[in-house]
Each structure stands twice: as C-alpha cells, then as structure tokens.
Amino acid sequence: MVGFLIAERTQLFIEVRKQTVVLSIADIPLAIGLLVVPSVGLLVARLLADLIVLVIRRPGPGKVLFNIGVDATEVAVAVAIAYAIGIGGGVRSPMTWVAVGVGAATADVIGAVLVLIAIRVTGQRPGLQRLASLCIPALVLGIVGSALGLVVLLVVSVNPWGVVLLLLVLLVFALGYRSYGRFLTQHERLGRVYAFSKMVESVHSTSPVVAELLDYVRETLNADRASVWLRGSAGQSPDNLAELISAGDSDDTGRAGPDRIPVLTIGADSEQVRDDSGSTDDPIREQVVADGKTRLLSARHGRRPARKDAETLRTRHASEVIVAALRAGDEVYGTVEVADRRTKFSAFSRDDIRLLDNLASHLAAALQNQQLVGQLRHTAYHDSLTGLANRERFAQATQAAVDETRGSGSVVGVLLLGLDSVRDVSDSLGHDAGDQLRIAMAARLADHVSATSVAARTGANEFAVLVRAPDLSTVVDRARALHAKIHSPVDVAGLTIDIGLSVGVAAWPDHAGGGATLLQRADVAMGVAKNTDVPIATYHASMDHRSLYRLQLVTDLRTALATDEVSVRYQPKVLLNNRELIGVEALLRWDHPTYGAVEPDEFVPLAERTGLIGPLTTHVLSTALRQCRDWLDRGLRIAVAVNLSARNLLDPTFADKAVALLREIDVPADLLTFEITETSVMADPERSIPVLHRLHALGLGLAVDDFGTGYSSLAYLRRLPVDEVKIDKAFVLGMGTDLGDLAIVRAIVELGHSLGLRVVAEGVEDELSRDLLEGMDCDVMQGYLLSRALAPDRFDAWLAARSVPRPDQAGLPGRRLQIPN
Ligand code: C2E
Ligand code: CA
Ligand code: CA
C-alpha cells in the first residue's frame, strides 16, 4: 500500500498539447505485490491507497468512482493473467517474469482503454492516434515497471540492503531524466523562438499574419489564450490599427479561426473587442506599458495574488496570465499576453516569462512591419483628399460583399452619388473651393454611412456607398434616406452653395451577375438620374442601351461637326396681321450615318453636358449668318433666330465671338435674334444677365423661348433685356381644344404686350389656332401650318411657291415677302 501511495505521489506528467499523459509507476508495487501478498490483499492495498489519495485531493465524486473502478479492474486483470500464466516458480523463474510482465502490461492497456472510453462518454471523440498515444506508453510502462518490481524482489532475495544500491541507481536515473527533459523542453522552445523569428522576417504585405503569429505564441507557451493589445495613441489612427489587426482575417471580430483560441484585442475605442479586453484602465497593462517589464500574475497551485491582481485575473476569466511589452524603440506601444496553461497540472514559470519576453520582441517587430504595410495599404486604397476608400478598394469591397452574400437571399446595393455643380464651383471660386465641397460631402457621407458599409470616392465628383440589405426596395429606401440626409447646401468660401446630387442605384443580384458590373450599372443609373432631373434612379436593363447609345452619340458628335452630318434648317416666322415673313428660326439637324435623324432634343442636352455646346452654337450661328448674308445678297431681308443654351450664357467670350462673326460675315445686328429659355437664365442669373445686356446693347434681338413652362416670373421678365416672348408650343397646340391652354395663351399675349414685347406663338398647326391668335392680337406665328424647318434649298423652293413680294416694296433691295393667306 505504501508502494502504491508513493507511486501516486510520483506520477510523471508529460505535456502533450492540451493533454497531459500521466505515467504512473504503480506497476512496481503491483509486480512486487503479485508475488508477496495474496491477491485479495493486493486489491485492498490498492483501494486503500486510492482512498487516502481521495482524502488528500478531494476530486469530484464521478472521478473517485471512476478511478477506483479502473484501479480495481487493473489489479484484477493483472492478478488473473499472472495466476493464469503461473507465478508458482517464484521470483527466480523466468516463467514468473513473463506472467507478471504480461499481467501488468495488459492491466495498464485496459486501464488506458477505460480512460479513453471515459473521454468518449464525456462527449469528446478521441481518434485512433489518441488510442496509440495512451496504449503504447501503458504497454511499455507495464513491462518496465513490472521488470523493475521483479528486480527489486530479486535483489531483496539475495540481500535486502541491495535495495539501497538499487534506489541509488534509480535516483541517478530519475535526476538524469529530469534534466534531460528540461533540456529537451528548452531545446524545443529555442527551436520555436528561432522559427518564430523566421516567421516574423517573412511577414510582408501579402501575408497578414498577426493572428497566426499570435497563435504561435500561444502554442509555444501552451496557453489557452493569447491577446495582443495596442495602445490607440502610438501615432496611428485606430482605424489603421483595426485594419492591421484584422488584416487577412475574414472574421470581423478580429479573432482567428474557430478552432484557434487567440483573441486579438483591439485598441481602446474600437468595438472589436471581446468583453474583457481593450479597456485602457487595466492595471497590469498600465504597469507593463509604464516600465516595459514582463509580469506574471497567477492564482494557480495555491498561489494567492494581491487583490488588484486577482481582480485583473477575474476580468480576464483567467487563473494566470503573463503580460509582456511590445516595444518600438523606447516606447511601449502595446502588450501581448498569454492566459492559462492548457494543462492544469502545470503553471507558468519563470522560464515562461523569459520565453514570452523573447517572443514579444519578435512580435513587436512583426507588428511594426505590418503597420508599415498597413500604412502603405491605406494609401493605396484611400483617396488622399477625403480619406474615404478609393475606387479600387470599393470594387474589392463590393466583390467581397457579393461573395459573402451569395446564397443568403440578401442583396448587395451600390449607391453612386454624383455632385452636379462642383465644376461650376471650381470654375468660379477656384479649385480649393471645389475641393472644400468634395471634402464636406465626404464628411457627410462618412457621418451617415453605418460602420458596416463602405463609403468611397470613386471619381472626381463621384461617391459610392455599399449597402447590404434584405431586398432591392430596402436598398432604394436607403438611397432615398441618404439623399435626404446629405442633400443640403454646403458652406464654401463664405458662400452657401446648393449642390445638385444625382444618385444611381444598382443591386446584386437584381441588376448584375457580379461585383464588377455592379458599379458600372450604378453609373448608368446615375447618368439617367442626371439626364432626367430625378434625384434617384434605379438601374434598369433598358437604360444600358440608352446610355451606350448616348455615349456613342457624344463620341460621334465631335466628328459630326466637322462633316456635313450636322446641318441647319430654317423655319419661317410670319407676322399675324399682314402675313409678312419677318424671319426664320435656325434649328439643328443631325443625320447620323447609323441612327439616321437624331432629334436635337436628344443631342443638344448631351452637347451641353460634354462641353460641345460651344462649338455647336458657333457652328449654327455662323451657318445661319451666312444664310442670312446669302438672302441679303439676293435682295431678301430675313432675320435669323438662333437658340442659345445655358452654358453659352456662362461663357464670358461668347458675346465677343458673336460680334466677331457678325462683322466677319457682314450681317447687321438687328437681323440676328438669340432665343434663350428662362431656365437657362435662371441657372446662374448673376452671370448670364450681364451677358444678355451686353448682347442687347449690340443691337441684336433677344427672345424668351418656351415661355409658360419655366418660372414664368413677371419680375424676371422685367429684369431681362428682351424684345420677344415665345409662347411655348404646348399651349398653342392645345389652345383649340383646351380652354385652360387658351386662357394661358391669352394671358401671355397680354402680359407680353403690357411689357412692350413682341409675342410669338410657335407650334401653330391649324387655321383655327391661327385665327384665335390673330383675334388676340398676337404678333407673330411659327408652325407647321406655315412650314416645317427646311433645308436651305427647300426653303428657297418654299419661298418661291408661297410668298410674293410685299406690294409696296417690290423690286427694292432687301425687299420683304408676304405669305398670301
Ligand atoms: P425650340 O427652340 O422650342 O424649337 C422649336 C421646336 O418646335 C422645333 O423642334 C420645331 O421643329 C418644333 N416645331 C415648330 N413648329 C411646330 C409645330 O407646328 N408643331 C410641332 N409639334 N412642333 C413644331 P426641333 O427642331 O426638334 O427642336 C427642338 C429643340 O431643340 C428646340 O426647341 C431647341 O430647344 C433645341 N434646338 C434646336 N436647334 C438648336 C440649336 O441650334 N441650338 C440650341 N441650343 N438648341 C437647339
Ligand atoms: Ca427656339
Ligand atoms: Ca420653343
């Protein structure tokens, strides 16, 4: 029994990962007992030893029963086998040796199998490897232990004092084994530190391995958890740190994979922390940061930590931790810590403190590298002006979101926001002002976009937001909410600027098969939003053709101007009272080689947005003036009206160009009228009204086109230096059938006259309308009733067929024509 007790106390522990293999030397007393005490006595001794151990250690009841059961079984098996083979020959008989050896070994193996079964019962599933790792040592131990027991008996049978000699030999062996074990551990650890330093060296941009390194540290110290904690103030933005720490880790919490336990604790204010970590007022971290010394706190194996330390351990749910400093030069920028040895039979020691210290210096180097890499990555993936992600980063994030969402039934939406007026702001207030506007916009976006989505600057005046939502309509709702939130005037350079904001929405999988096309689709939708003046447009397949078509048109328009694809047609304007032909309106026509006739309503707005309107207007103006000159040369006095767009009025050189052309082509200024719309004037009255005054002062005519559709503001009409107001054709077309339209036409005629303006009705298609207009005293008519817009040769033919010289002016140079009826 004493032997068994000694054996229980001198169990050898071998740490194998989480498990500790317990090697018992109980086979020595077992072998001796088999030969010297009766079998029942042996069993009793064994169980008594167990009971005493029980009293000392007080394990749980399940464990007691199990241990007693296993031990009893082992003794019974050993006895049965030994007796079966036969130990009658006594200690000197080799037969007895075999009997005892086989008995002890078999008993041990059965014990190991029972332990395995117990592990299985508790829910774990040990593999075959575990079976081998338990049974083989058991087998070897059984044989060696029983052999030793037999040797003891043999020695005693010769001379009892021989035991002393034997013990001496064993003692030396044991000591030797222990230091060899230490040596082995030390050796292994050195190897691991070396391997770690190699790992650290190989850390570069493509291997974001902080989590892996930490796991290695944990593994090396055989600890349950390892954490890295970084101070938020070591010169890096917390954002950057978070990125660094979670680099390569698809799991957002910054934790490594599911079967690895390390927790990457992220700095102070980040949310990515596990309950216990991250807090800055952690006393042990403070101490380590203050003096850089590695510390061990332990409440294991009867150690009693100070109250403060106990509290620290409690917040970590740990019984022991070692905390070491991460240093950059003299500064400690964080800590690395390990908690809880994975086996409960041993605890962290002084060796472990040194080991962690060593690993921490390597880890610090790795983190520094990673930080550099992180900074580089940050610049590579962020817009330098606004700090938002850039187009590449956004494209990556979109693709990643699509990949993650696949199969989940949710959608990934891209909201593309275009700022409409930045160009004008930059033009008039300078580039800084434009940038201020962009920065202000970026800040608003960053404020309103939740932490889980990505906001990016994807173009000069273009921002994008990534949205994950259960369905498309939620994406559209978000777009609306975002638009409402950020669409308010911005203060720039002391001015409050109203920014135009067009939002294009596209979602996967509704509109695109992958992340790459998603942004493109949102772009198409945004283009439509811009064109159609709706704030938000959601992608639709039909838009694509449309936008491709437009893109093609813009490309072609540049070259079309140089060829004769683009031409000018002339539509006559006649005085209602005496049917005198007073002029024509010059209207653009584009005969596209593949698309055929392209409507000016289609390509003029395109030209306006792409900066082509300048050359286009010059083209019409010079063509029309040459035509006018041609008529003058033939003795015909026909005025020409040319349409202007808003951009022409913002061009400070426009008036000069017009004057130059009038001189060059030699046309009197009073034969030229510019038609402008209220909307184009209102786009920027401050700049366009002076231009209008300038033109008016030159003696040419100005007409307000499409009156009745825009602001129709009497106050503005008064401010504008105009001679003519053109009633929008929509009212004229409707006046024969719609009393409302009729009333509007009448009101405009009266209003125009009250302001001393000539009133023109365009869109006169029938005689009824003409007669009504005549009855209202409207001045001029224009419309299909007279003629469509005609190419010059057709116009000449029309003139020849439909007009006669005004009787009083026949034969005079610059004669006027009349349209009889
Ligand atoms: P707008 O200035 O209001 O031109 C009058 C439009 O009404 C012309 O269409 C003309 O063909 C059409 N029209 C004339 N009489 C009638 C009629 O009796 N019934 C109907 N239903 N329509 C009639 P068009 O030529 O298609 O031009 C459309 C618009 O394109 C013009 O509207 C003008 O805003 C723009 N545009 C045309 N040429 C130029 C140009 O050289 N420069 C600029 N900036 N814009 C131009
Ligand atoms: Ca017009
Ligand atoms: Ca018009």
Notes on the structure:
This protein has 821 residues and is α/β, with parallel strands linked by helices. The protein is built from 29 helices and 25 strands. The longest helix is centred in the first third of the chain and has 40 residues, at 162-201. Residues 233-263 and 265-278 have low confidence and may be disordered. One calcium ion is lined by residues 705-706, 726, 729, 762.
Which keywords apply here?
alpha/beta, 29 helices, 25 strands
Brief characterization of the structure:
With 821 residues, this protein is of the alpha/beta class.
Count of helical regions: 29
Residue fraction in strands: 15-25%
Question: Strand order within the widest sheet?
Answer: 15-16-18-19-20-21-22-23
Stretches with pLDDT under 50, minimum 5 residues: 233-263, 265-278
Helix content range of the residues, please?
40-55%
Instruction: Report the radius of gyration as a whole number of Å.
Output: 47 Å
Form type: rod-shaped
Biggest sheet architecture: 8 strands, mixed, barrel
Q: Tell how many strands the DSSP assignment holds.
A: 25
List the helices and strands and how they pair.
Elements: H1 2-9, E1 12-16, E2 19-23, H2 27-36, H3 39-57, H4 61-85, H5 94-121, H6 128-158, H7 162-201, H8 210-220, E3 223-230, H9 238-246, E4 263-264, H10 283-291, E5 295-298, H11 307-315, E6 320-328, E7 331-341, H12 350-381, H13 391-405, E8 411-419, H14 422-429, H15 431-448, E9 455-459, E10 462-469, H16 472-486, E11 490-492, E12 495-497, E13 501-508, H17 515-532, E14 536-538, H18 541-560, E15 566-575, E16 580-592, E17 596-598, H19 600-610, H20 613-633, E18 639-643, H21 646-650, H22 654-665, E19 672-677, H23 678-682, H24 685-697, E20 701-707, H25 714-719, E21 724-727, H26 729-734, H27 739-754, E22 758-762, H28 767-776, E23 780-782, H29 792-802, E24 804-805, E25 817-818
Helix pairs in contact: 1-3, 2-5, 2-6, 3-4, 4-5, 5-6, 7-8, 7-12, 8-12, 9-12, 13-17, 14-15, 18-19, 20-22
Bound molecules: ligand C2E and calcium ion (2 copies).
Residues 705-706, 726, 729, 762 line the site of one calcium ion.
